[in-house]
Please model this.
Amino acid sequence: MMKKQSKFIMEENLNRLAKWVRMIGCDVVVYKNISLQKMINIARKEKRVFVTRSKKNSNLKLNYKRWLIRSDNYLKQLEELKPILQPQQLFSRCIKCNRKLNDIHKSKTKNLVPDKVYRKYKEYKICRRCGKIFWKGTHYQKMLKKLKKNY
Ligand SMILES: [Zn+2]
Model:
């Protein structure tokens, strides 16, 4: 039995699952147009679990950590990953590009977020890679609810 993990490399067709796993703070990389061999090399080198929907890719006679996902529904996929998933800090990582978020002072976000958001929320974080600003708004709350159903 594999122990709980917080670092993954996922195949491109698991991109939606990847976003959800980043929501709970885990480090998930997804590369486009990359060979299987390269993905496995990265998995080994960076100690990531290779997550795949392909039975063939999960059965190679090579030394790498792997996890097979069967469902094509992201919430079911999350369920399938759960036995090995070690949640980290919520709301700590960019769900789009995986980078750790930095705190940003509210005053600096004034022209970057909608007015009604600015009036309502105190805490903001920024992704220094894509520039996206995050706050714990309705979208976040909805995602959290769905996640909690799964935890
Ligand atoms: Zn980002």
